[in-house]
Design a protein that fits this description.
This protein is of the alpha/beta class. It has 2 domains: 177 residues, Rossmann fold; 56 residues, Alpha-Beta Plaits (2-Layer Sandwich). The protein contains 8 helices and 9 strands. The protein has a 5-stranded parallel β-sheet with strand order 2-1-3-4-5, with helices on both faces. A two-stranded antiparallel ribbon has the order 6-9. Helix 1 packs parallel to helix 4. The protein is globular, with a radius of gyration of 18 Å. The two termini are 29 Å apart. The protein binds flavin mononucleotide and iron/sulfur cluster (2 copies). One iron/sulfur cluster (SF4) binds next to helix 6.
């Protein structure tokens, strides 16, 4: 079983890696932005994983699914989403699309991890609380791996009730946020030192360095990687102030 994932701040990458370790399968794992990501389709069974964003799929993942329509035909796909609190049908959103392209959905897993939005006060937790969330998540992933090994794939986020919860809980009210933030990244030139970390790591190549400063285009998929890794705290997206820079590495220590 090969895996394809988007992970802005490391949570989703951790969950996928742990699940594959626990399954003990001979697997290859590809970040969605990797140039050889299509090699994942060499296997008939796949994992597709991403962070939930407003009970929806990040646009980069949706575009990836749509632009590889033929490749999904006949594939068995297990969906994973990570979330800060509530995903509704975070896996179901991708499942419906993939089924349209002929994939068989084998199951879904929705795992609570620390919140990745560093520039909003809501959902902020202490380092200890975040570590406890990760420990609980690890336990859930281990249990899910056991079920999968027994052939009982979990179906989290795939039911009609989850669909309604995702739609009315968030998607209807926040739809403009997932589609309208491609050009909303804010970089403070007075803080930026032009180190290029953001440009090098952005999965959509949305940032370039011009005259020694980072400049953003209009392709942001809201993954928060640049925001949470900038050494000068120069970047914000949804908010105007950076309260913390949450990443899996920092939260798991
Ligand atoms: C733009 C954005 C929107 C988000 N929306 C939700 C949401 O609707 N529900 C939720 O529980 N978590 C939400 N989160 C939190 C992330 O899904 C969660 O922290 C995830 O584990 C991050 O994974 P990553 O580190 O792999 O990027 C959101 C995060 C971002 C950046
Ligand atoms: S990571 Fe921060 S300091 Fe470095 S180029 Fe990007 S915005 Fe500037
Ligand atoms: S600009 Fe930043 S938040 Fe947007 S996709 Fe790139 S790394 Fe992610």
């Amino acid at each position: 079983m090969n895996a394809i994932y988007l992970s802005g701040t490391g949570n989703t990458k951790h969950v996928v890696t742990l699940l594959l370790d626990e399954l003990g399968m001979d697997s290859r794992i590809y970040p969605i932005e990797s140039p050889d990501v299509l090699r994942a389709f060499e296997d008939d069974e796949l994992i597709l994983a991403y962070p939930t964003m407003f009970s929806n799929i990040p646009y980069l993942v949706r575009d990836f699914i749509n632009s590889n329509q033929e490749a999904w035909k006949g594939k068995k796909v297990f969906l994973i989403t990570t979330m800060g609190l509530f995903a509704g049908d975070g896996t179901g959103c991708a499942a419906r699309l993939l089924k349209k392209y002929g994939a068989e959905i084998t199951g879904g897993l929705q795992i609570v991890m620390p919140d990745s939005i560093g520039d909003c006060k809501a959902l902020k937790k202490t380092r200890e609380q975040n570590k406890a969330i990760i420990d609980k998540a690890d336990l859930r992933v281990t249990q899910a791996a056991k079920l999968i090994r027994e052939g009982n794939y979990p179906g989290e986020g795939l039911s009609f009730a989850a669909h309604l919860a995702g739609l009315f809980g968030q998607r209807l009210w926040f739809y403009n946020k997932t589609t309208g933030y491609k050009d909303k990244l804010k970089i403070d030139p007075s803080k930026c030192i032009g180190c290029g970390i953001c440009a090098k790591n952005c999965p959509t190549q949305n940032i370039r360095i011009e005259n020694g400063k980072a400049v953003a285009s209009a392709k942001c998929t809201m993954c928060y990687r640049c925001v949470d890794y900038c050494p000068k705290q120069a970047i914000t997206l949804l908010g105007k102030t950076l309260y913390e820079q949450p990443t899996y590495e920092r939260n798991s220590k």
